[in-house]
Specification:
- It is a single chain.
- It contains 6 helices and 5 strands, in the order H-E-H-E-H-E-H-E-E-H-H.
- By secondary structure, the chain is α+β, with helices and mostly antiparallel strands.
- It folds into 2 domains: 8-130, 2-Layer Sandwich (Alpha-Beta Plaits), CATH 3.30.70.1730; 133-181.
- A 5-stranded antiparallel sheet has the order 2-3-1-4-5.
- Helix 1 packs across helix 3 and helix 4 (90-103) crosses helix 5.
- The longest helix has 48 residues, at 133-180.
- The model has no long low-confidence stretch (mean pLDDT 83).
């Protein structure tokens, strides 16, 4: 297949898909058989602006994936295939696809590519089950703040103990001075 020359229009389509594969943080392959145009439009809107949902011929998409250096997707290019190229938050896009597939069972998640390697449909679902990047960062910041507060208290403890000891010694000297006088 890779040896056969392709027409100029198909070559430009392959080049565009290859660039999308290379530039996307993740790509999810879906089967859209039975969905209406309005449902596909709704899906595109639900994915947001950082994802593009593209219907592609399997032979062209397979060639583009190979040209982009992605292996392990060949068996997914069967039936009507659409590609979701994600340039933003992968978790949010996976959630959007999962939620749309729950509401519209005709959309089937086949698998995809994440961080340069092929992933299964189950792994796409696992990504969707993760909390969003913002939530994870907020949790990390909260944990770090808590640990920093503990560290600050730990560093202040010897100073506070020293101050209490000095105050106790001063009180003791003043009492001794008062008793001697």
């Amino acid at each position: 297949m890779a040896d056969k020359p392709i027409r100029a229009d198909k070559a430009s389509a392959v080049a565009e898909l290859t660039e999308n594969f290379r530039s996307a943080g993740a790509t999810v392959l879906t089967e859209y058989r039975g969905l209406t145009v309005s449902q596909l439009t709704q899906l595109r809107r639900s994915l947001g602006q950082e994802s593009t949902y593209t219907v592609a011929k399997n032979t062209l998409a397979k060639r583009a994936a190979t040209d982009a250096g992605i292996a392990g997707l060949d068996e997914l290019f069967t039936g009507p295939t659409a590609l979701t190229f994600v340039s933003g938050d992968v978790v949010e896009a996976a959630k959007g696809l999962r939620d749309f597939a729950k509401a519209n069972p005709k959309l089937v998640i086949k698998g995809g590519v994440f961080e340069g390697r092929a992933i299964s449909a189950a792994e796409v679902t696992k990504l969707a089950d993760l909390e969003s990047r913002e939530v994870l960062l907020a949790k990390l910041a909260g944990a770090m703040k808590g640990n920093l507060s503990k560290a600050a208290a730990l560093f202040q403890a010897p100073l506070a103990k020293t101050a209490r000891t000095v105050a106790a010694l001063q009180d003791k000297r003043e009492k001794e001075g008062a008793e001697a006088a």
